[in-house]
């Protein structure tokens, strides 16, 4: 369970981030194999897949080919893409196909060592459902965990936990429109673990019992998941697809399905879909890990060779005709809860896939570069004084080998859509008429090339989980699993020939002479909105547009920071293998060289005292200061300048404000390390604080307030303030307060800390220390002298967390009948209590398992109930254990009472050795995995190791400490902190939607006291 503070800030800052470009953007890319994750794909309008025990995976995007008639999705994979392509597959991969038609792919990969990731891809999803089966494809994904040939419903999850295999919502499977994917990441290669993995995957294929009683028990779980996924955005998306694809099956087959079907569908409907579509010819089994391919291949044949295809397997449906639009057709979607007003020009046309090839990949490159240039134009326009837009983009995408979409979009400032529409139309027409400048295309090309080059350099350290998931994503797309070297070779040829002229031609080919949907999404539909949209659009078309202005990039201006420092002291930290260095100017430096990420170096600085020093009369100053610091660029370079200057370079900064430190971090490569260090030092010594950043922030304020008014973010922010004793530093700012902030407010607060306060720089990754040290000495070492320690902050670290049993309600304005029940038990603070929080981690996992069993599985009242500790390492005494259940708004009190009662029983009777083992094994597996994760070393170990040296001994003893924890110890912790008399119940729901629930039984029992039970 995370501390809610960063969660709430992230929700609010998400609105702000929409208005600011980071200093190093993700580059555009053509349709590269998703498994390589070489660069950002040129796609945005992707319907939401609905995960059950898995996670949402968007529809991937192979290269498109135009066709007059739509082609339905294929009836499952028959051959491998490389069989029809000039692109060679990665030679390390073993591709095979069983006699029954099931395909398999084995890829030996030793990162992380002694682990393996399994993926079973079924080329079937919600599009295969009949009208009276809507939602059953997703429901089936749940049911295979609820009783199979080899596992009863009660057996599978405990067996996985005992072996250290993670289980939970968004972890083990997902269902989309045209695919279902099952995922197991095995923590070791032992016989028991491998046997379980293969047996489970085989059972998913044809061994599901689909017991009627189990189906009935799971109905509530599915309905609770449907409730948890019900959002205004999802509802609008359904309406938009009905408008864009009228008559198409896609708009009537969203994976979550219909409530009536979920509640009433008989067993035979499940059996029908399962038996017709879970067939070998639709299956692809993927194994990636530290394995010997020949051994795995033999095992696959043994495990899956006798799978049978039915006599009449299910066929893929005709998805319907795509109706072309003549001219411009206006559409309006409105809801008072939408976060922002948006305008789009959308083209929809039939799509037919052709085999992946070098030609097809390169054919999409010029369009991708053109769309990147459009996005950059919108960025510049958004930053103009008084601009009616906040940002914009241009994309192409395709759905299920059926429809190809193009979208030209802007987010509107302050609902000024009448002013924003001419901007949208004229930029669209400017690109059609005049194309792009050489500088625009050069910038986009540099970013693409760099992305592919970095994919080559980092390939040796690709993680098996990511590779396996990427491969599963690519199955329905038909992309060849080629090497990063091959991908680079192909794209290099395209970049060598791509020019402003070829990009203009590609843009015209894609966009010219297309019927367009003109779409307005806003809070309230204006009177005669469609007529007004078309009128403004037609009037704008009469205005002359000029060719885009050429703009050349300047040189980076920050290369000299003064005389280099010297090393004052250095020591090695035994057992953790890193160096602690103090420079002559007082800068602290921590260095750890690793090979966990080839060609990658991660950096972070902790500076000063962060939010502790925030003026108490300025709630919200922290995220205002973050926004204008990042959005202001540097003194000599605006953010826009930096986009050009840094194109093709692996540098960037991320500024954040923690409870007790300001942080500035980044990620780079050995080749760009010096530039990265220069950029970070320039950010500290000469931040831009431009007025354009203030203007952009003010544009974001309505979006922020919409989130606070109409989503759980508002109540969560209010709860955060309450948990901090209503300390204004964690308070919820008013709209007037946000609008009143000035650049000087941020500068006055940040400047003293960033220029003088204690600074600890940590660097982890693939570097050579003899090369790195001179670069650090002439950048961070050349900064003015820093304080040698932090001042006494004890008074600032104090907040008053509520402790008495209490029930509080936080409401917000929404039609979505969704509620959240939180039960919070105050504990000692995280600061200085690491060993206690380890025990709370395990206790939280045990409580989570009990919540899952009772609230999810038995009651079907919440999709993903969970529990865990939270708190702040920067505050004294701020800690808690929290249980969270999301369900129907009317059930929030019942959920809170039930969670409290479950915790009461845990306090009264304690836990068992079996429960402890099932909680500890997956956690130990994750800890072992973290030891090969640079982010763990950077954030947990190095970042404040000189500020707080005591944490190092705690980290050294972490594994042994976790292994030593007993059930008796956890009972002692539960007795001390849990129980009814300690429970703070927080109910979050829309106004007027919650109802009181009956008090659970035995409320006079389980007050955090009791005898110790016998061990299980």
UniProtKB/TrEMBL annotation:
Chain intervals for the UniProt region annotation (Disordered): 27-86, 989-1016
Entry keyword set: Hydrolase, Metal-binding, Metalloprotease, Protease, Signal, Zinc
Domain Peptidase M16 C-terminal as annotated: residue spans: 267-447, 741-922
Cofactor annotation: Zn(2+)
Keyword Protein biosynthesis among UniProt keywords: no
Leader sequence segment: 1-31
Location of the Peptidase M16 N-terminal domain: 106-228
Record's keyword annotation contains Secreted: no
Feature: compositional bias, Low complexity: 58-72
Pfam families reported for this sequence: Peptidase_M16, Peptidase_M16_C
Coiled-coil ranges per UniProt: none
Domain of life: Bacteria
Amino acid composition bias (Gly residues), ranges on this chain: 1007-1016
PANTHER family recorded: NARDILYSIN (PTHR43690), PROTEIN YHJJ (PTHR43690:SF17)
Similarity comment: family membership: Belongs to the peptidase M16 family.
Protein name: Insulinase family protein
Species of origin: Luteolibacter soli
Lineage: Bacteria, Pseudomonadati, Verrucomicrobiota, Verrucomicrobiia, Verrucomicrobiales
């Amino acid at each position: 369970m995370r501390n809610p503070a960063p969660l709430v800030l992230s929700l609010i800052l998400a609105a702000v981030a929409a208005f600011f470009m980071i200093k190093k953007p993700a580059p555009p890319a053509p349709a590269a194999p998703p498994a390589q994750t070489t660069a950002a794909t040129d796609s945005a309008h992707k319907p939401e897949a609905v995960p059950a025990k898995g996670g949402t995976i968007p529809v991937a995007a192979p290269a498109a080919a135009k066709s007059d008639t739509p082609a339905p999705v294929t009836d499952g994979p028959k051959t491998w893409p490389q069989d029809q392509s000039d692109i060679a597959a990665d030679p390390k991969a073993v591709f095979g196909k069983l006699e029954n038609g099931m395909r398999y792919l084995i890829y030996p990969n030793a990162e992380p060592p002694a682990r393996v990731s399994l993926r079973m891809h079924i080329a079937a999803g919600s599009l295969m459902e009949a009208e009276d089966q809507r939602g059953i494809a997703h429901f089936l994904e749940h049911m295979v965990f609820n009783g199979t040939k080899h596992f009863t419903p009660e057996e599978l999850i405990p067996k996985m936990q005992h072996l250290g295999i993670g289980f939970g919502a968004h972890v083990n499977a997902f269902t989309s429109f045209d695919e279902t994917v099952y995922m197991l990441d095995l923590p070791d290669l032992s016989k028991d673990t491998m046997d379980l993995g293969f047996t489970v995957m085989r059972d998913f294929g044809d061994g599901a019992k689909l017991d009627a009683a189990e189906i009935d028990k799971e109905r509530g779980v599915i309905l609770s998941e449907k409730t948890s996924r019900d959002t205004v955005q999802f509802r609008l998306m359904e309406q938009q697809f009905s408008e864009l694809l009228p008559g198409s099956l896609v708009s009537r087959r969203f994976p979550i399905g219909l409530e009536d079907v979920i509640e009433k569908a008989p067993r035979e409907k499940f059996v029908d879909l399962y038996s017709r579509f879970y067939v070998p010819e639709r299956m692809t089994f993927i194994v990636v890990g530290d394995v010997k391919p020949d051994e795995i291949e033999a095992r696959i044949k043994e495990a899956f060779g006798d799978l049978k295809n039915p006599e009449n397997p299910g066929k893929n449906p005709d998805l319907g005709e795509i109706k072309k639009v003549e001219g411009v057709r206006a559409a309006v979607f409105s809801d008072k809860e939408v976060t922002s007003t948006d305008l789009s020009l959308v083209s929809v046309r039939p799509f037919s896939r052709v085999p992946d090839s070098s030609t097809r990949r390169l054919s999409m490159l010029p369009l991708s570069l053109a769309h990147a240039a459009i996005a950059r134009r919108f960025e510049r326009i958004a930053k103009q004084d008084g601009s009616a837009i906040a940002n914009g983009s241009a994309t192409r995408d395709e759905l299920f080998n059926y429809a190809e979409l193009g979208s030209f979009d802007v987010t509107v400032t302050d609902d000024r859509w009448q002013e924003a529409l001419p901007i949208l139309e004229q930029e669209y027409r400017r690109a059609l008429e005049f194309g792009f400048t050489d500088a625009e295309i050069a910038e986009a090309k540099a970013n693409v090339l760099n992305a592919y080059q970095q994919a080559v350099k980092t390939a040796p350290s690709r993680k098996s989980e990511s590779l396996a998931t990427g491969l599963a994503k690519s199955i329905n797309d038909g992309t060849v699993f080629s090497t990063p070297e091959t991908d680079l070779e192909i794209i290099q040829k395209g970049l060598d020939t791509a020019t402003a002229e070829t990009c203009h031609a590609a843009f015209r080919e894609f966009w010219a002479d297309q019927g367009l949907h003109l779409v307005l999404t806003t809070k309230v539909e204006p009177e005669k909105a469609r007529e007004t949209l078309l009128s403004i659009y037609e009037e704008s078309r009469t205005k002359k547009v000029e060719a885009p202005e050429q703009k050349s990039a300047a040189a980076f201006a920050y290369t000299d920071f003064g005389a280099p420092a010297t090393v004052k002291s250095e020591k090695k930290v035994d057992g953790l293998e890193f160096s602690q260095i103090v420079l002559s100017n007082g800068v602290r430096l921590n260095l750890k060289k690793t090979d966990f990420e080839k060609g990658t170096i991660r950096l972070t600085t902790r500076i000063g005292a962060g939010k502790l020093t925030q003026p108490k009369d300025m709630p919200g100053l922290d995220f205002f200061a973050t926004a204008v610091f990042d959005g202001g660029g540097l003194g000599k370079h605006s953010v826009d300048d930096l986009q050009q200057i840094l194109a093709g370079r692996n540098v960037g900064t991320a500024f954040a404000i923690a409870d007790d430190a300001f942080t500035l971090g980044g990620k780079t490569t050995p080749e760009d390390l010096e530039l990265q260090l220069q950029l970070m030092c320039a950010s500290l010594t000469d931040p831009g604080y431009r007025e354009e950043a203030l203007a952009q922030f003010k544009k974001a304020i309505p979006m922020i307030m919409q989130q606070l008014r109409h989503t759980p973010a508002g109540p969560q922010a209010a709860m955060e303030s309450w948990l901090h004793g209503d300390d204004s530093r964690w308070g919820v700012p008013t709209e007037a307060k946000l609008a009143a902030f000035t650049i000087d407010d941020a500068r006055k607060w940040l400047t003293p800390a960033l220029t003088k306060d204690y600074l600890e720089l940590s660097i982890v990754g693939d570097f050579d220390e003899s090369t790195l040290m001179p670069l650090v000495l002439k950048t961070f070492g050349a900064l003015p002298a820093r304080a040698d320690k932090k001042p006494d902050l004890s008074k600032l670290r104090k907040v008053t967390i509520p402790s008495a049993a209490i029930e509080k309600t936080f409401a917000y304005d929404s039609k979505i009948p969704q509620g959240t029940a939180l039960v919070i038990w105050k504990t000692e603070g995280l600061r200085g209590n690491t060993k206690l929080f380890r025990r709370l981690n395990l206790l939280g996992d045990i409580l989570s398992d009990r919540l899952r069993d009772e609230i999810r599985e038995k009651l079907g009242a919440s999709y993903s109930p969970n529990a865990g500790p939270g708190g702040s390492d920067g505050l004294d005494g701020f800690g808690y254990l929290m249980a969270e259940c999301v369900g129907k708004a009317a059930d929030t009190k019942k959920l809170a009472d039930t969670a409290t009662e479950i915790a009461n029983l845990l306090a009264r009777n304690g836990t068992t050795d079996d429960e402890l083992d099932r909680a500890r094994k997956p956690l130990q597996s994750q800890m072992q995995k973290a030891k090969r994760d640079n982010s763990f070393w950077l954030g947990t170990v190095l970042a404040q190791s000189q500020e707080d040296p005591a944490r190092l001994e705690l980290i050294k003893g972490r594994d042994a400490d976790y292994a030593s924890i007993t059930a008796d110890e956890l009972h002692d912790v539960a007795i001390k902190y849990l129980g009814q008399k300690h429970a703070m119940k927080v109910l979050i729901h829309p106004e007027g939607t919650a109802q009181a629930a009956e008090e659970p039984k035995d409320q006079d029992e389980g007050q955090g006291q009791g005898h110790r039970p016998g061990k299980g």
